[in-house]
Amino acid sequence: MTVLTRAIAFFLLTVTAGVAAHGRPGRPGPRPGGPPPESWCSPARRSQRKPWQTLTDPQRDDYIRASLCLAEMPARHGIEGAKTLWDELHYAHIAQSAFIHFVGGFLPWHRYFLVAHETLLRGDCGYQGPMPYWDQTNDVSNLRGAAVFDPISGFGGDGVGPDLCIGDGPFVNLTLRFNEDLAFDEPYCLVRNMSECLFQGAAPSFVNDCLGAETYVDAWACLEKSPHISGHWGVGGTMSNTLLSPGDPIFFLHHGWLDRLWWEWQSKDLATRLTEVDGPNIIPTNATGPPPGQRRRRGMDWLRRRGGPPDDSTCPGTPLGGGPGAGLAHGGGTKNKAITDYFNDGGGILTTLNHTLWSAGIIPNATIAEVMDLHGPLVCADYV
Ligand SMILES: [Cu+2]
């Protein structure tokens, strides 16, 4: 059994483990042992999510400190090959990449992953400030000058040299371990290869198109393409790899922005959109993994060859054409019950509120229903 099939087997086994309590270390939480009532998340309890640009210098410093702490704290979730908590977060995304992208659960799973990340930041590394996100509105024409990439107060800048490892900032020595196939024998660096051109899909005009969508499927497919892909490809390198992207700490700020946009869309009609989810629960082909026969590609090999944008020919045509969601939004999922039954979607090929969300044991499994409301007890956050 390869490492990857072992991981998938682990995933399929543990994803059925049920939904447990929601105690969250580092935050005021309910008593362990039972889910809190819906009313638990009072405004005073909500985690504040703010644009990075609005954080004070001490808040930025503390967030960077806590992020570096995650990359040093020993792994503790039983994941083979993981040395640090950062590795474990990385693993949780890589191991199920084919089940969380280009599917209806894309937005809910990444919301849940933000909670997993926040839980570790606060519980293991003592972070107490607001959760930052990357508001990209004003950075479209000046990607490299964006505050988030400041080498002193931010996440450092572009890649340099032949390997395009980042050349400055606090994460210059960050070590990534898991490769696309979950092998972990050859650590590698954080790579960036910025493209302002590929970032253009983050422009407000495209964002506003998504916010105007009428249905969940249209909103999800729109958001996952541009601005989502535009942020990944605009930063490039590690971020432009569908599996490996959470290795770059900017990933969590990018997905915070995307989640804010989903919440903004939901907030236009909460009566409907707090329970509206749809789309396939699995992609028809493993579009996010390496081609057959190339399973053993190393993370660094991939990044060396494709450290740049996946396809320059899409530039300057914006928004990105043929991206995720295209042709998938209304079906195309597998009918292989051996897989779909594990998600608790009733055996069908469409994503339901009952769909199981899994984080390799970093936080308890949850259902999509539990992350739909930002003010529910599981997420309990506010975009301010
Ligand atoms: Cu992802």
TrEMBL record:
Comp. bias (Gly residues): 319-329
Region spans: Disordered: 22-54, 281-329
GO molecular function, one term: metal ion binding
InterPro entries: Di-copper_centre_dom_sf, Tyrosinase/Hemocyanin, Tyrosinase_Cu-bd
Composition skew (Pro residues), residue ranges: 27-38
Tyrosinase copper-binding domain: residues covered: 101-118, 248-259
Chain segments annotated as transmembrane: none
PANTHER family noted in UniProt: TYROSINASE FAMILY MEMBER, TYROSINASE-LIKE PROTEIN TYR-1-RELATED
Name this polypeptide is given: Amino acid transporter
